[in-house]
Amino acid sequence: MSTRAEQSAVRWQDNGPSGEPSGSAGVHVRRIEVQTSKRMEIHDLTATVQEMVRATGVSAGLVTVSTMHTTTAVFVNEPQSALLEDVQQMLERLVPRGEEWKHNDPRYSDCDRHNADAHLRAIMLGSSVTLQVAEGGLTMGQWQRVLMAELDGPRKRGLVLQVLAAS
């Protein structure tokens, strides 16, 4: 599992006209796309999320990052390469790909991707994170990063970033 450079993998798309808030006053929504290159890999989205928060001009509030897929996950942790390899090994041990999952069995499911392991791994890691925004930036610990796990790639993946301004 490796972390890829955000610039080559992430693409922004505003939902509102020219970066203006979408929906309710004080709510800013953007969609991003991440192109993955492996079946399982982790992308660091922190700079993209931070850039979006700064672009909104929100000084205090919340930002939520959500995946639009059932075989990807979003979580907060440290992107140290050995740790990312440990995460991959843990997921492979806890949810083996070769197991006889019902989702992969045509008697029970019409899914031809044979990706039950990816769905189960995504359930374990979670589909969204919400972080505090203070002084115009993300409130995170020194080593914390916003990470997206691709669990059934390679594919183009969509995520939604939503910033809510505090009243």
Spell the H/E element sequence: EHEEEHEEHHEEEE
Give a count of the beta strands, DSSP E runs of length 2 or more. Answer: 10
How far is the first residue's CA from the last residue's CA?
Answer: 40 Å
Share of helix, binned: 10-25%
The proportion of residues in beta strands is: 35-45%
Counting DSSP H or I runs of 4 or more residues, the number of helices is: 4
User: How is the main sheet built?
Assistant: 6 strands, antiparallel
Give me the Rg, rounded: 17 Å
Features:
167 residues, alpha+beta, 6-stranded antiparallel beta sheet, 4-stranded mixed beta sheet, 10 strands, 23% helix, disordered N terminus
List the helices and strands and how they pair.
Blueprint: E1 3-4, H1 6-9, E2 10-14, E3 27-35, E4 41-44, H2 46-56, E5 60-67, E6 72-77, H3 81-94, H4 116-125, E7 128-134, E8 137-138, E9 145-150, E10 156-165
Parallel strand pairs: 1-4
Antiparallel strand pairs: 2-3, 3-10, 4-9, 5-7, 5-10, 6-9, 7-8
Characterization of the model:
By secondary structure, this protein is of the alpha+beta class. It has helices spanning 6-9, 46-56, 81-94, 116-125, and strands at residues 3-4, 10-14, 27-35, 41-44, 60-67, 72-77, 128-134, 137-138, 145-150, 156-165. The chain has a six-stranded antiparallel β-sheet. A four-stranded mixed β-sheet has the order 1-4-9-6, sandwiched between helices. A hairpin with a 2-residue loop joins β7 (128-134) and β8 (137-138).
